[in-house]
Amino acid sequence: MRCVLTALIVVAATAVVVAATPRPGWLGFGFTFHADAQPWLHVRQVIKGSPADAAGLRSQDIIRQINGKAIAFANTNEARQFFAGLQPRDVIAFRVRRLDGERTIRITAAEMPEAYYRLWKSNEDAPRRR
After folding, report:
1. pLDDT, tens digit, for every residue of 36-67?
2. CA 110 to CA 86: how far, in whole Å?
3. Hey, where are the domains in the chain?
């Protein structure tokens, strides 16, 4: 009986610590980084119901600026690190080009949903497992 009770306490305490760990901000879109003379992001997918979707970002949009500044990432990894640094409630403004012109789209990051968080963590941990 003591052993079972101890295990329940440890599991409960671990669950509280995991639940208290803040998740990164989430915008809900995928992109391809292009390192031309003037780098840009090609929006490949926008997840239905995500903050990006709610703000009006669309698949095939071309992002040329972030928060009023030209994109300055040297590579895809730098772009990923930038987005991984977002916190819930951060507001980010993209200057987007579409066939019908340019516009600014402001997206408020949400807390990353559980399923995406698990995927993000497994990708983040992947280089360490090699």
Report:
1. 889 999 999 999 999 999 999 999 999 999 99
2. 9
3. 25-129
Pick the CATH number of 25-129 from 2.40.50.140, 3.40.140.10, 2.30.42.10, 3.30.1490.190: 2.30.42.10
Question: DSSP letters of 60-92?
Answer: T-EEEEETTEE---SSHHHHHHHHHT--TT-EE
Residue pointed to by tokens 């052993």: 3
Rounded to two decimals, the pTM is 0.77
Secondary structure (DSSP) of 12-49? HHHHHHHHHSPPPEE--EEEEEE-SSS-EEEEEEE-TT
Largest Cα separation within the chain, whole Å, is 69
Locate 78 and state its tokens: 């730098």
